[in-house]
Specification:
Shape: elongated
CATH topology of the largest domain: Rossmann fold
Strand order of the largest sheet: 10-9-11-12-13
Radius of gyration: 19 Å
Structural class: alpha/beta
CATH class of the largest domain: Alpha Beta
Number of strands: 13
CATH superfamily of the largest domain: Succinyl-CoA synthetase domains
CATH architecture of the largest domain: 3-Layer(aba) Sandwich
Length: 259
């Protein structure tokens, strides 16, 4: 952490670090290469665009509920600009365990140990189990990356392409949920990929939806697309071993690796 950005508070200190009025001033003074965005939904898209204008290489947007048309504006940023790696919005962040400084996320998880497995997921709540301190004989928890919103930055396909090309990645866990077609797209990529790696998946169908986001996903599922059964079938057809609950992901992966 090298500083923060809050318009109108430039020149002050917080937690012993400088605060700047703009991302551009922060980058010029600190040579920052990443931006973690905790900006309320009405203004979050502008914060992402400001980071893009400042040529920040990695942008992690935690904010949930950014208006879809605002994110369309972000995705249509001028093609001449160098596009950063955008994680999110509506995500818990990204962690690279082998590099302790690469932690941009919303929750105070303990530092995971480096390992050879990678985790990609759409929904933040499933990170909690994977990032607890593991018992000595459990192996290493995976690195993780995630995004969950109709118009987002890094997708399952983006994550899987990187994982398949990474020589240090030996196995993959993919956690999806109902609604949309991100999991089907990811399954299609794995099915056509020439390089194969052991992959375990899980689809969160959830209880009867109460929150608006889950209710919207349930409606799309009832419309005949994005349902849990459709996603599970697509994953199985791509050679992904699907676990029946998040609690069995570890044992399922162990079985796949031994098999």
């Amino acid at each position: 952490m090298v500083g923060g950005v809050t318009p109108g508070k430039g020149g002050t200190l917080h937690l012993g670090l400088p605060v700047f009025d703009t991302v551009d001033k922060a980058v010029a003074a600190t040579e920052a290469t990443a931006s973690a965005i905790y900006v309320p939904p009405p203004f979050a898209a502008d914060a992402i665009l400001e980071a893009i204008d400042a040529r920040v290489a990695l942008v992690v947007c935690i904010t949930e509920g950014i208006p879809v048309l605002d994110m369309v504006r972000v995705k249509r940023a001028p093609p001449g600009q160098r596009q950063p790696r955008l994680i999110g919005p509506n995500c818990p962040g990204i962690i690279t365990p082998r590099r302790m400084q690469d932690r941009h996320h919303a929750r105070p998880y303990p530092q995971p140990r480096a390992g050879r497995h990678r985790l990609a997921l759409r929904h933040p709540h499933y990170m909690r189990r994977w990032l607890r301190p593991p018992p000595p004989d459990s192996g290493n928890p995976p690195a993780s990356a995630s995004a969950a919103t109709p118009v987002n930055g890094t997708s399952f396909v983006d994550c899987l392409e990187m994982f398949l090309d990474d020589p240090e990645t030996e196995a993959i866990i993919m956690i999806g949920e109902i609604g949309g077609n991100a999991e089907e797209d990811a399954a299609a990529l794995l099915k056509s990929a020439r390089r194969k790696k052991p992959t375990v998946g899980f689809i969160a169908a959830g209880p009867r939806p109460r929150a608006v986001g889950w209710a919207m996903r349930a409606r799309s599922s009832r419309a005949g697309r994005g349902g849990a059964e459709d996603k599970i079938e697509a994953m199985k057809s791509a050679g992904i071993t699907v676990a029946d609950s998040p609690a069995s992901l570890g044992s399922t992966m162990l079985r796949v690796l031994k098999g």
